[in-house]
Amino acid sequence: PTRPVVVRPAMAAAAARCAETNTIDTVIFDVDDTLYPASSGFSAHRNGPVAGRFMVERLGFATMREALDVRNEYFRKYHSTLKGLAVATREGRLPKPFVESELGDYWADHCDFESFLTPNATFAADLRALLGRTSASNRLKLVVFTNAPRKYGLECLRALGLDESLFECIVGVEDVMPHCKPEPEAFETVLRMCGSSPERCVMVEDSMKNVRACKALGMRTVLVDERLGTTTLDDATGGSEATLLGDVAKVDDPAVDVA
């Protein structure tokens, strides 16, 4: 597949605008369809053939269609494949028990990161510049929080050329279970982990449900919508997680501070 190079300067600039006051000490970034463009097709790849093969090979489903029907049913309820499958196994919906640690290993090993994701040196430089604007008395922390397994998230960062050292914390969904985004308890756990509080935090997200949840907690919010400024991407972003969840970005929503 063709890999679109979306340089994301607007996202870094938006985060910088939200963090330009001394009251902000933490910027949290989502991963999927935020750190890389939804039009890359990577989410459709991960949530389709890779998730389906995992469920056939590890969970005993007979066909990919049967597997993905169950996966999508629970994903729509819980917004996370890991949490959805954990609930599905407790409810007796899976042929074989789901072992949570296996999903991150499988995705890290079987997702075709290099075919879909492009190293983004400009965005990495923007993040370093954002860190460089802070002082010893007001040190800014960058955090990654994904509703996917942490090992998979680390592979995404590697493929995007974003060094782990840029981030104070890299949080996977297993770190906040039994909760996950958009549950407020998930965000509260992340804030405790990175030593911040809602009023001192900016959340960068492509999901409206997550943006609204963060705003309700008192965070500032940056909505990432690749379609802004173009009329040609609606079809290309159809495989995004937000589309699957009926969670399409609304830049005029009162929960959005910057888009």
Q: Low-confidence runs (pLDDT<50, min 5 residues)?
A: 1-7
- Shape estimate: globular
Oligomerization category of the chains in this entry = single chain
Strand content: 5-15%
Q: Write the element-wise H/E pattern from the N-terminal end onward.
A: HEHHHHHHEHEHEHEH
**Termini separation (Å)?**
28 Å
Q: How many strand segments?
A: 5
Helix content: 40-55%
What is the gyration radius calculated from CA atoms?
A: 18 Å
How many separate helices?
A: 11
- Structural class comes to alpha/beta
The averaged pLDDT comes out at: 89
Q: Let me know the largest β-sheet.
A: 5 strands, parallel
Strand order of the largest sheet: 3-2-1-4-5
Overview of this structure, please?
With 259 residues, the protein is an alpha/beta fold. It contains eleven helices and five strands. It has helices at 9-18, 42-59, 64-78, 81-90, 100-110, 113-116, 121-132, 150-159, 184-194, 208-217, 241-244; strands at residues 26-29, 141-145, 169-171, 201-205, 220-223. A five-stranded parallel sheet has the order 3-2-1-4-5, with helices on both faces. The longest helix is centred in the N-terminal third of the chain and has 18 residues, at 42-59.
